[in-house]
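Researcher: Structure for this, please.
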Amino acid sequence: MTTAVTALHGIAPHSRDRTAQALRLWPVVAITVAAVLVMSLPNLADPFIRFDDYPALLAQPELFWGKTLHEGRWINYLWHLRGVVTPAWLNFAVYQVLWAVLAAALAVAAMGREGRAWYVAVLALFILVAPPATLISLWFNTLIPGLGIVALYAVLGCRLSIGTHRALLPVFVVLSFWAYTTYPLILLAVCLVRTERHSLRDLIGLCVLFVVSFAAAILLTYTLNWQFHGVFGVPLDAWRQATPAADLSGMIANLPILAETLSFLMVKISFMFTPVAYFHVAMMIGATLVLIRHAPREALYLHAGLWLGMALMVLQVLKLGVVAPSRSFLFVWIFYAVIVVRAAALLGRTPGFVDRMARNLTLLIVLSYMVQTFSQYTIYRPWQAETRAMAQVVETTDMPVLVYGDVMSLSSAKAVQLLSDKALVFRIEQITGRGIVLCDTDPNRCAAADQATGTAMKVEVTTTGGQTRLSYPQGG
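Model: Predicted structure, token format:
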């Protein structure tokens, strides 16, 4: 416990002017906000929403209540109770701005010791284009409060002394854990990158402080579940088809699930282009070697945070027996970005061919991933357009609307990996305020509605010319 106390109080004041650093933050925020809005343009006006994010958009806490038990999302549940429904485009814009602020604050905290504007801006953009961030942004309605908590902690890292900032870590770990399980790992990254006087004792103290805080978050979550659900723990929902391990042999049996998790991660961060995955591995190795040579203690700090986070993720996968989604590994990209750009900055102290190559490769990743992110957001537009067209048809009638056929087989649904046909129900409710009935999943209700009125509007899923679309009755 002594090391944890050292992490809080044993850090002497540093000469860097925190006010000056805070002033440097806002120009970087302006850059990242402009960049994220440009990258998000295809999805800004009418953002795509994952089906289980709709309760947050529509402020329907009763539909989210189960996630407090099965996922410990207590902060998110409180957000559902707000009683104010704001448009999806506004929520998405707010979420993306919060992400831009977080990326900027991380970059300023990590590069403050150098103070070179080019490297600060590039690191901020490098973090901004993280593929896991793009994936998780589709749950923007739910995650606004959690991302706001993490962004606030990063901004405070540019203003407060290190000791005061670390003293707040336990509180922020608990709050962010109640929003998304791996958000606390981003807080750890903030603490590690802004540390300036590196020592093994300080590193151990910080890691102990974080682990204790993380354990406290789990314990408090279990306590809340016991208080409100009568269950001391966070039991996984049945749809996850988990294979929990009771002992070491069970964890060994779950190794293929771990391999699948890591394989999915490499696919997602490379946008399904395998050579890019190998390129990132090579960049990580090369940058690490540069850090070991020029700043070995800094390399130790960054890799300690990275592998502590990976250890927690590996333990979770092996213990629970479920594939961890790639979006939960956002912290990995953050550490990767810091390692690469910090290495480039160190090489930049001696201008030459190696320095130019490092800067060019870093800039190549940033620019190419900005284009890829923009492209990723365009794939949701066909689904949005098709559902808007259906909503227009629904608004022309007062009859019940019955949808026949497999919604998941729609070409636009496959393109966006829809996850659930409930997305169509929520989407039509979002636009029109009306409900529809999916006859494939609720045949009894569909038949009852049809028999009761005899004049229901029947929408069908049909395939023509290789494209599966929604079709409407003549005159509908």
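Researcher: Any notable elements?
Model: Strands lie at 401-404, 437-438, 457-464, 467-471. The first strand starts at residue 401 and ends at 404.
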